């Protein structure tokens, strides 16, 4: 048997990692400024994270959601405290796509409607309704296109008001910072406008924080830069620092019932241990504050390089926009400078999504390498 080849691969084979340092099978060291799509939030093999998972593995790795699991309640309490979202309930699953799938399902249950409003250049996952709400026709199969989704431009007040007046939608799903799409973001005025319109029309507002959550923007959630309160918040990626875990925060005005949502692996003992470790490190090491501070420093350094036409994003979810496509630059950064960065739907954007505990010295090394690659 061979692998089903759906990924274009760089010729690098990582075998060991610590912090932002990654070593390949030849002993070459790389610096990871991408974290596997913003997954590595507290650094590779953080000692507290490793200890937490090892200890849990010695006790119990898994049992189903048919029994008591106090770790889930501990996680919900800690997450509520750190995020400031104590008026929400937590449902755990396994990935960002599954989180958004459950968020959309809850919205449809709640409203009795099925249409969704999403935005140009959005990315919400690769499963049924989540991929239908993703602005990329090439990954939408005919079976997904049965979902009814209205795509609107970001920050277009008139288009949004016209769409929502149809009274056919169950949900609006939006990224406060677009990830794959290229780090475009709604203005505060637009975010507050859609939040108010959703309340007025009894439509569920879903904040997709799969990539931008967990301190990456300098606040726990990126929507918190805009002073709004979503009905449902989807989370994943940085939540487990590499362990597959996701979830949704559901406002307490939604009432649960047995069987409404379900999952086999979601919220298992190892997933909870990993997720608790991440929250404890975020808290103990002040990583949200570090993300905000180093995001500002990154922008200062970027301003020194004339080839960079625009810096997009917040905190340590940042993109550098050039006036040329960056595929060759990204390859040079990996193969010649030994640094991992990311691409986007915007082919002129280089994405920077490191662990939140990097230092100014790490950013200096990045820009020295970038100058050489340019």
Word description of this protein:
It is built from eleven helices and 14 strands. With 374 residues, it is an alpha/beta fold. The protein folds into two domains: 48-284, Type I PLP-dependent aspartate aminotransferase-like (Major domain) (Aspartate Aminotransferase, domain 2); 286-373, Alpha-Beta Complex (Aspartate Aminotransferase, domain 1), CATH 3.90.1150. The chain has a seven-stranded mixed sheet, with helices on both faces. It has a four-stranded mixed sheet with strand order 1-2-3-13. It has a three-stranded antiparallel sheet with strand order 11-12-14, with helices on one face. Helix 5 links the parallel strand 5 (115-119) and strand 6 (149-152). The chain is globular.
Secondary structure layout plus pairing:
Blueprint: E1 14-18, E2 21-24, E3 29-32, H1 35-38, H2 47-59, H3 70-83, E4 88-93, H4 96-111, E5 115-119, H5 128-132, E6 149-152, H6 157-164, E7 169-175, H7 188-201, E8 204-208, E9 232-235, E10 246-251, H8 269-284, H9 287-302, E11 310-314, E12 317-321, H10 327-335, E13 339-340, E14 349-352, H11 360-373
Parallel strand pairs: 3-13, 5-6, 5-7, 7-8, 8-9
Antiparallel strand pairs: 1-2, 2-3, 4-10, 9-10, 11-12, 12-14
């Amino acid at each position: 048997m061979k692998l089903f080849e759906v990924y274009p691969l760089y010729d690098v084979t990582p075998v060991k990692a610590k912090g932002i340092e990654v070593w390949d099978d030849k002993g070459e060291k790389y610096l990871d400024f991408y974290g596997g799509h913003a997954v590595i939030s507290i650094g590779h093999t953080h000692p507290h994270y490793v200890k937490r998972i090892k200890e849990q593995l010695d006790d119990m790795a898994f049992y189903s959601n048919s029994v008591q699991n106090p770790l889930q309640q501990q996680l919900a309490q800690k997450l509520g405290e750190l995020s400031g979202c104590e008026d929400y309930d937590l449902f755990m699953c396994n990935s960002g796509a599954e989180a958004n799938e459950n968020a959309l399902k809850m919205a449809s249950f709640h409203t009795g409607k099925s249409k969704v409003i999403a935005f140009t250049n959005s990315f919400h996952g690769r499963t049924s309704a989540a991929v239908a709400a993703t602005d990329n026709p090439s990954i939408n199969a005919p079976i997904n296109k049965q979902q009814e989704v209205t795509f609107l431009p970001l920050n277009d007040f008139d288009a949004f008001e016209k769409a929502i007046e149809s009274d056919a939608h169950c949900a609006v799903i939006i990224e406060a910072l677009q990830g794959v799409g290229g780090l475009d973001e709604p203005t505060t005025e637009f975010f507050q406008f859609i939040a108010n319109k959703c309340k007025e029309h009894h439509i569920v507002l879903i904040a997709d924080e799969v990539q931008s959550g967990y301190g990456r923007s300098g606040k726990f959630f990126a929507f918190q830069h805009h002073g709004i309160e979503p009905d449902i918040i989807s989370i994943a990626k940085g939540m487990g620092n590499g362990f597959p875990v996701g979830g949704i925060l559901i406002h307490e005005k939604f009432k649960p019932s047995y069987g409404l949502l379900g999952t086999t692996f979601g919220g298992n003992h190892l997933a909870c241990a990993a997720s608790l470790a991440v929250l404890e490190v975020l808290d103990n090491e002040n990583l949200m504050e570090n993300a905000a501070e180093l995001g500002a420093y990154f922008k200062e350094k970027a301003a020194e390089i004339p080839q960079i036409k625009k810096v997009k994003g917040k905190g340590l979810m940042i993109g550098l926009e050039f006036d040329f496509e960056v595929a060759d630059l990204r390859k040079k950064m990996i193969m010649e400078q030994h640094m991992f960065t990311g691409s986007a739907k915007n082919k002129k954007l280089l994405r920077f999504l490191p662990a939140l505990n990097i230092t100014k010295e790490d950013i200096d090394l990045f820009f020295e390498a970038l100058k050489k690659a340019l």
